[in-house]
Write a structure and sequence with these properties.
The complex is a heterodimer of chains A (131) and B (311). Chain A contains 2 helices and 7 strands, in the order αβββαββββ. Chain A has 131 residues and is an alpha+beta fold. The radius of gyration of chain B is 22 Å and the shape is globular. Classes of the chains: A alpha+beta (131), B alpha+beta (311).
Chain lengths: 131, 311
């Protein structure tokens, strides 16, 4: 009987660690021709490799909250177009124009950080972010 | 048996419920409020138009020391593979098709040996190129913070480098994911049977007062050559030519010699321009943290996977 439980836990453990380990990707997961306005309250802002990302709670008119993530590029690329580790903070009210994930999940992408690429619209606490 | 399944499910569900709360990485809040100005350490190099028409001074002799920035930001980053041979059928912006089995039809093809072609197919890139695959199927070692290696540190994400000349070495520091190499200038020969190294073993010499040529061997075949997943063998030899055009400009040419993989030598970069930065220029750090990478994959990467790729 004990060996059966051991097998159980091994199976459970294997299921846990076999989840996709690496999913760092380019824009392939997003609809680059589409636009979604992520409007809500910042809950977290992660200034790390491989991509900076900001988490936004978006309430619909029924009072449901969707937990959105909007990702950008790596911190050095973002520095070069005027972002800093302080660009967002929890509690900020934001509107972010992002490319939506193809799979319909609440994830968006801001695309290229090339200094010559057009910037997508971001509003933070009522002010347009234009570094 | 059903109890076993129940326990396994319970463990799985608990793990997925608990894990978002286990690791919280938050940028330190700034008491003064959000700012939009960059750091004041001058880490931000100028972009290409800044240099147009700028006058310089004659090149110093036998000197490539300094902080050199690619400035050709889109050019140096090379997301589709080495700049001289991107794995694209048309210039970027005109549509990228992924999922092809090989590189047939790219603008400037490489000529693979049969062995080389099989090695190419084993590398599954996630960047924008003809063989691009979805993230869950990609196997780029750099996505797990393996060393970028050489010459990929020049054929991918070439941003800012610092070169320091000592009596017997040129010390080469590379920004993206923090690489360093040592190039021996004491006249020694390349080793005959070198140990495999991610960054290889390099010797360099001046072929004239303004051209410094580096030969590198002993390259660990686990690294990719570029972001399009081009492979190399342990027989790879790389030649770099750094040509000091004038005081402010350096040109880099990188040639790949690997007869096991490529039927003929090819250039990854051809007179790629690098621009001298002021001595006080602080190179922004960009290191790969496996823990941060795992956290990103869990929070963001996994969330965008197509349903069929979820295990």
């Amino acid at each position: 009987m004990r060996s059966l439980w051991t097998i159980c836990f091994v199976i459970a453990g294997l299921a846990v660690i076999s989840a996709p380990l690496h999913a760092h990707h380019g824009g392939a997961a997003y609809d680059t021709d589409k636009s979604v306005i992520v409007k809500g309250t910042v809950t977290d802002y992660v200034w790390s490799n491989p991509h900076v990302f900001v988490k936004v709670d978006v309430k619909d008119d029924k009072g449901n909250t969707a937990h959105w993530i909007v990702e950008a590029q790596n911190p050095v690329s973002m520095l070069q177009i005027g972002w800093t580790k302080n660009t967002f903070k929890p509690g900020d009210e934001v509107e972010i124009d992002a490319m939506p994930a193809k799979n319909g999940n609440p994830v968006g992408f801001l695309g290229s950080s090339s200094p010559t690429a057009p910037r997508r619209r971001i509003v933070i606490n009522g002010k347009q972010f234009q570094p | 048996m059903s109890r076993c399944v129940g326990v396994s499910l319970f463990v799985l569900l608990s793990w997925s419920a608990l894990s978002p709360n286990l690791c919280a990485q938050t940028a330190a809040p700034n008491a003064a409020g959000s700012e939009s100005k960059p750091a004041t350490w001058d880490s931000i190099p100028p972009v290409k138009p800044f240099y147009a028409g700028k006058k310089s001074e004659p090149a110093p002799r036998r000197d490539i020391s300094g902080i050199w920035d690619a400035a050709e930001l889109d050019g140096g980053r090379q997301p589709s593979g080495a700049l001289e041979h991107p794995a694209l059928t048309a210039p970027r912006g005109k549509g990228v098709e992924g999922g092809r089995p090989d590189e047939t039809g790219i603008m400037r093809p490489l000529h693979f040996t049969p062995f080389g072609l099989e090695a190419l197919k084993a590398n599954k890139p996630s960047g924008p190129s003809v063989r691009q695959v979805l993230a869950a199927l990609a196997n780029d070692p750099v996505d797990q913070c393996d060393p970028i290696g050489f010459p990929r540190m020049e054929l991918y994400e070439l941003r800012t480098i610092e070169l320091v000349q000592t009596a017997s070495q040129v010390i080469y520091l590379n920004q993206f994911y923090g690489n360093y190499r040592v190039i021996w200038t004491d006249g020694r020969e390349l080793p005959k049977d070198p140990e495999p190294r991610w960054n290889g073993y390099s010797v360099g010499k001046w072929v004239d007062d303004y051209t410094f040529v580096i030969e590198t061997v002993g390259l660990n075949p686990r690294s990719w050559l570029d972001n399009a997943g081009r492979p190399h063998s342990d027989e790879l030899r790389v030649e770099e030519r750094f040509h000091r055009v004038d005081r402010d400009n350096l040109e880099l040419t990188v040639t790949i010699y690997d007869p096991k993989i490529y039927a003929e030598p090819w250039q990854g970069l051809n007179k790629f321009p690098l621009h001298l930065q002021p001595p006080g220029f602080d190179i922004a750090e960009l290191l790969c943290s496996p823990i941060d990478m795992a956290e990103y994959n869990k929070q963001v990467g996994s969330a965008v996977l197509p349903p069929s790729d979820k295990k």
